[in-house]
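WARN  no MSA supplied for this record, continuing single-sequence
INFO  ligand: adenosine-5'-triphosphate
INFO  echoing inputs
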Amino acid sequence: MAQMSIELQTADDTIHFGRSLGRVLRAGDLVLLAGPLGAGKTTMTRGIADGMGVTGRVSSPTFVLARVHPAGPAGVALVHADAYRLGGDLSQLDDLDLDTDLDRAALVVEWGEGLAERLSDDYLVVRLARRPDDVRTVRLEPHGAWTGRVAELPVAT
Ligand SMILES: Nc1ncnc2c1ncn2[C@@H]1O[C@H](COP(=O)(O)OP(=O)(O)OP(=O)(O)O)[C@@H](O)[C@H]1O
Ligand SMILES: [Mg+2]
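INFO  complex generated
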């Protein structure tokens, strides 16, 4: 069942939400960040990276296609990709020489909606929106195995 949308009043709230999500991510997970320009996708990824305890500073992947954040103590790396720049073909990820095994990483994709179906039946869409008053909202749309997993997530920001 789709979660109700949650208000993220500040960028810190976006980070905080991402952190909660990052704490539950496992190797092989696929998360799609959906939402218009400036909605907070990269900011959310910063929180996810923090929650996962990975290393390396998160920045917009626009010019690098995909960036690997090596695993911290939790043992799971983060691959942060931009599907828009990948030309809508996520299979290219395999060709990028990412220096990590995608099976041992969580994959977080900005602009990845509509492409994930080819990678896995199990994925989580994190839908960000920007209201006219500039407040961001977030809604989780689980698919496949994620349907059961979202119940474990703390949703309060
Ligand atoms: N909840 C929020 N409230 C207000 N500002 C926010 C919030 N979340 C993020 N921001 C701010 O919005 C701006 C854009 O954020 P960000 O770069 O994360 O968006 P994006 O969705 O990745 O953009 P793009 O589509 O260009 O990749 C940043 O200045 C960020 O600090
Ligand atoms: Mg971005």
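The chain has three helices and seven strands.
INFO  checksum written, moving to next record
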